[in-house]
Amino acid sequence: MRLTVHLQDVNDNRPQFERVDCVGYLSRKLAIGSEIVTLSAIDFDSGDVVSYRIAGGNEDNCFSLDASTGVLVLACDLGDVRADSRALNVTATDGTHFADAAALTL
Prior knowledge:
single chain, mainly beta, Immunoglobulin-like, three-stranded antiparallel sheet, 0% helix, Cadherin-like_dom, glycoprotein, calcium ion binding, transmembrane helix, membrane
């Protein structure tokens, strides 16, 4: 008698940002829609899809983060913004209950 066992991966790993502290560069001359930085996180579980979101620091909605690609773009006119630098908190999730957080300094 032959017995075949098929093992499936269990979602036991959280996504991990490649860098915990990320840096992007801003200029008051950037046009709305300009790409600022691309965030990247990996998940060692097979089949998991990582999604990204801004968790804090974007109260004025000056930035937009593509949930599937991790591309952060400018969504407002920086000429009207008084701050010289910005700090955003971003998360990467695997669609269930695991997440990682990173600080993004602009």
